Each structure stands twice: as C-alpha cells, then as structure tokens.
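Researcher: Quick test of sequence recovery. Tokens follow.
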C-alpha cells in the first residue's frame, strides 16, 4: 500500500511540474505554423513584395540600459524576427559618423541592451547578411539595412503550416508584411496563401494580380467565391476557417469593354464603417460572397488578360459605396466610359495632367497601364504613355512621356 502511495505521489508531482512548465512555456515555442524557407518563386521580390519588411522607428520604445557606444540619437522599434512575436531593437551611430550603423536586439525582453544581440558595420546603401539564434531554438536568416527613418529587413523565410477548409487540410503560408506580428484589425498587412487546388504550390501571380490563392488575414474572407469566418491565435500562430453564418450577399462583375478579355481578376480595398477589408477574386470566383452592408471602394484594381497574353491593369475608385444586400447579388459594372475630364497644371517646363475617366455606374478610373510578365516583376516600373502637345493646327509643340506621380 505504501509503495502504491509513493508511486501516486511521484506521478502527481510529475503532472504538476508538467502543468507548470506548460503554463510558463516560452512564447517562442513550436506552433502549428513554423518558420520555413520561402518558396523560390516568391523570394527576393520575384513575385510580389514577400520577404521585404519596412520597419519604422517608433518613439515609444524605451530601454533601461544601452551599450556604452550608443551616443546621440538612439532610435527604437519593434520587429517580429520569428514572424510572430515582436521584439524591441535600438539603432544608433557608433564611431562619430552621421549614419546609423549599429543595431541591438532585446531578444530576452528585459530592456537591458548591454546584453542584447549586437550587429555592427551596417550601411545606409547596402544590406548586410544577418543570422540570429532566437530563444526557443529558432533562427532568423536575412539581410538588414538601416536608413534614417526605417530598418529594411529582407528575408527568405515565412511561416508554413496547414489550415482546415471544409473538412480538408490545405497547405498554407503566413506572411506579415509589417513585421509586427499578426493582427486581424490591420487588414491588408498580413496575408495567407493557400494551395487550394493541391498542386503543391501557391498560385499567386502579381504580374496579373491573380490572388485567387491568397487572402488578407481579416475576420471575413472570400475563398473561391464562398465567405468564411477567420479566427486567429496570434501567439501560436494558428488559423481557423469556418463558413460565415452572418448576413451576406454576393458581388458580381459585368464588363462593358469593347473586346471581352480572356480572363480577369479584381482586388478591392473597401471600408464599411470602421472596418477595412481586402477582397480579391479571379474570374471563376464570381459572384463572390461578401458580408452584407455598404462597402466604400477606396481603391480597386482590375487586370484584363487579352487573347495575346498581354495584361492591362486598371485602377479605379467609386464615390458611392457598393450596397451588399442580404441574399441578393449586386453587380459592379466596369467599362461603361462616359466622360473624360482633364486638369492641367504647369510648373516651369513640367506639365501635370490629371485625368478623370468616369463611367455611368459611378466608377472613376485612374491608372491604365500594361503589366510585365512574371519574369520581369523585379525590375518593373510604372511608365506612362508617350505624349504630344499640339496646337490648333496639329503642329507638335512638345513631346515626351507621361510620368505617374
């Protein structure tokens, strides 16, 4: 009897220690999504902005202790090196120069940067390779450059895992473009890529703005035309999707162009009250289920692919919100051009032309430009069309190229 009692006591102590260890586990511990190499196709800006994090300095970041060489203006900020948990850092100039050249990360979170991870020899014009061992066994690999206003971090890592969608496990990747960790209230700053068709890759193409396998991390997301409620455990991190049960309607697109494109894709940045949402869908996804309400379109982008493969991108906005009614389909009409208004402003030798191309449906068009192929996305710069200024007799007074600005 006594032996059994001793065994039970030992078991109780072991369970208590296990529970204590679990309660006090490091926030850097392994999770459903884990840091992994970014797919080759997305590295280095080849296909979208993935891997480039512009981390601004923030005045609210303070430290108890700084290294002895931290003189003058010390700038602070926060960045999630593991993609999840932001840590504080200090940037300063050491050595009597003018440009920031030293970084110290407070990986322990105790405010004592005399014991922090220090990186020297940084330069305003070059990215320096950096490897940091993170608490919990993780590792950060990337490049860092310091500027007077922000820290540029380039990395070829992202968080990979799986999510359950309609009873099936789907491979996914999480990307935080702010470097501050995941936050559903910051719509459009964090993205999730999904291998919906199971072909072993993420079919996202920034050269055609085809985001059919990418969604913004926000409370409601449209995936393949269906609306889902998205919940996020930002500490693990972990994502859950389930069919949205709230009031919803559908959005359809009606194209009124002279020539019908082979395919199209639409991205809308909308505001409903204080809620900002990003809605992306390809042609096959429409009509798209959307949460009911009046959605004001601040910016819209549509890419049209012709039979020759040429892709044209059209930016637009709308003065009046789109009304999504419960159980009904609202149609967004694009292409019914009605009027072109020009505003001219000359400063010295530079003439600024502000065109507003409006439509009967209330859509106002901005930039209309040709897009490069995926292999040219890294070097792509938006260029305006060739332009000529003529007098009333048709004589060319000046010519050049329009510049977007």
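Model:
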């Amino acid at each position: 009897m006594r032996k059994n009692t001793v065994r039970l006591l030992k078991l109780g102590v072991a369970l208590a220690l296990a529970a204590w260890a679990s309660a006090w586990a490091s926030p850097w511990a392994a999770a459903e999504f884990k840091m992994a190499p970014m797919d080759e196709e997305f590295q280095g800006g080849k296909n979208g902005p993935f891997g480039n994090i512009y981390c601004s300095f923030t005045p609210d970041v303070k430290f108890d202790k700084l290294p002895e060489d931290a003189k003058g203006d010390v700038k602070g900020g926060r960045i999630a090196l593991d993609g999840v948990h932001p840590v504080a850092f200090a940037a300063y100039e050491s050595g009597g120069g003018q440009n920031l050249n030293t970084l110290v990360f407070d990986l322990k979170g105790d405010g004592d940067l005399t014991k922090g991870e220090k990186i020297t020899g940084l330069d305003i014009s070059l990215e320096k390779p950096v490897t940091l061992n993170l608490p919990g066994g993780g590792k950060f690999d990337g490049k860092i450059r310091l500027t007077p206003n922000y820290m540029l971090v380039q990395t070829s890592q992202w968080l990979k895992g799986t999510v359950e969608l309609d009873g099936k496990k789907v491979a996914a990747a999480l990307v935080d473009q702010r470097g501050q960790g995941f936050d559903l209230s910051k719509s459009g700053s964090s993205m999730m890529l999904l291998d919906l068709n199971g072909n072993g890759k993420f079919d996202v193409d920034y050269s055609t703005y085809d985001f059919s396998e990418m969604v913004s991390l926000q409370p409601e997301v449209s995936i393949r035309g269906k609306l889902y409620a998205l919940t996020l455990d930002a500490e693990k991190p972990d994502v859950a999707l389930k069919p949205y049960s709230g009031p919803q309607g559908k959005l359809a697109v009606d194209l009124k162009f002279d020539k019908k494109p082979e395919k199209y894709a639409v991205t809308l940045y909308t505001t409903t009250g204080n809620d900002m949402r990003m809605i992306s869908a390809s042609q096959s996804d429409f009509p798209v289920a959307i949460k009911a309400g009046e959605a004001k379109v601040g910016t819209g982008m549509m890419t049209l692919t012709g039979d020759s493969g040429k892709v044209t991108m059209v930016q637009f906005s709308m003065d009046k919100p789109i009304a999504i009614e419960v159980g009904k389909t609202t149609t967004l009409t694009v292409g019914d051009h009605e009027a072109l208004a020009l505003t001219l402003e000359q400063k010295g030798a530079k003439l600024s032309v502000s065109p507003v191309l409006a439509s009967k449906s209330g859509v106002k068009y901005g930039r209309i430009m040709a897009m490069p192929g995926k292999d040219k996305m890294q070097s792509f710069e938006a260029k305006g069309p060739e332009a000529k200024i003529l007098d009333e007799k048709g004589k060319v007074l000046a010519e050049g190229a329009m510049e977007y600005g």
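Residues 1-31, 376-382 have pLDDT under 50 and may be disordered.
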